Model the fold of this input.
Amino acid sequence: MPNFANNTDRTSWLYVDKNSDFPIQNIPFGVFLTRDDIITIGTRIGDTAIDLGALHQLGYFDNIPLTEDIFLQDTLNDFIADGRQTWRAVRNRIADIFDVNNDTLKNNPAHKETVLFRLDEIEMQLPVHIGDYTDFYASKEHATNVGTMFRGAENALMPNWLHLPVGYHGRSSTIIPSGIAVHRPQGQTLPNGVENPVFGPSKLVDFELEMAFITTNANDIGEPIPIEEAESYIFGLVLFNDWSARDIQKWEYVPLGPFLSKNFASSISPWIVTLDALEPFRTAGPEQSPQPLPYLKFSGNKSFDIKLEAAIQPKNAKETVVTRSNFKYLYWNMAQQLAHHSINGCKINAGDMMGSGTISGPDPSSFGSMLELSWRGENPVLLNNNESRKFIEDYDTVIMRGYCENQDTRIGFGEVRSQLLPVFESQKKR
Ligand code: MN
Done:
């Protein structure tokens, strides 16, 4: 099915600011609570949220094979499971309904009253029930930086790193939407020069600037996903802040990888931007040397040019952008990640989420974590209000943004924003 929704000549009868992340060419998917406390699946054009459940009930999706309640759900899982043809048909229809030359909904005030919401009338929810969550470690610059700090420049990259996309299975229960505050975790650490571990609040809470992709049902158990098919099982992407406690991580990560240092919270942006909408922003990735094994070899451009930034906003102060990176810096692309993930027969389901790993670029101003930006705390990062940060402090808000832009259009993700709170009160008293 052709992808009419990406037509850059199209404009909408809904107002869209020229710097908006959400022109009519984007048409992301999310889940929100309406002013009447009804949960629904929706999309967004400019600063208008659109209730797809209501649009469907009013007959605007006639002739697209959809179940009656497909959008009247509190997650996108069933819609995602319907597959690429359905996502495309629905995006194309939404583009048509809101096209400046289509008067049907535009001239129906009663329908508009039911379907359209201002952003301050809705509350965004977690868009997917995430079954399984995997986090990769796909940025060579990030892996090199962390390896250099932990093991020295000589042993920065482990011997496997250039041959396979390293990853670990994370925990989906603590993936939360933008706007939900995160408590500083407590745990075991081994401070420098001390023989026995101590227990207490993490002193080194960090962000990780990542993106994550969400899959549809892709294979049966035992059946690998061929690399050239892998992208057809990717529904879309979100911004992903993989909160990390570096001191807990350093003590616990040997030999099985991160555990409690990572699973206290990971925050995602609420609108899933489809891979279809990102199509115009394909680009070449970094050159891969040595050549990957045949099952990881791919043709064409499988990286995407998505500009990323992270900012820190202290309480009662303005934010400071502390890093600017790009999704295209990732050494291992999403198709390689999915092909590798399933090469042993691991089953990939609708609603699974795969994090990219911290996305650091070649330049120190593009590093994707405070661990790297402050080089383990040796070079504090100066903020606009003359404070400085080695890591994240209580009541700081971390904001991540991402967008693609060419001469025709801008497709963005909005933001993921979350505040770090002190250790949870009832824990403190123990
Ligand atoms: Mn991570």
The pocket of manganese (II) ion is lined by residues 135, 208, 210, 242, 355, 357-358 (CB under 6 Å). The mean pLDDT is 97.
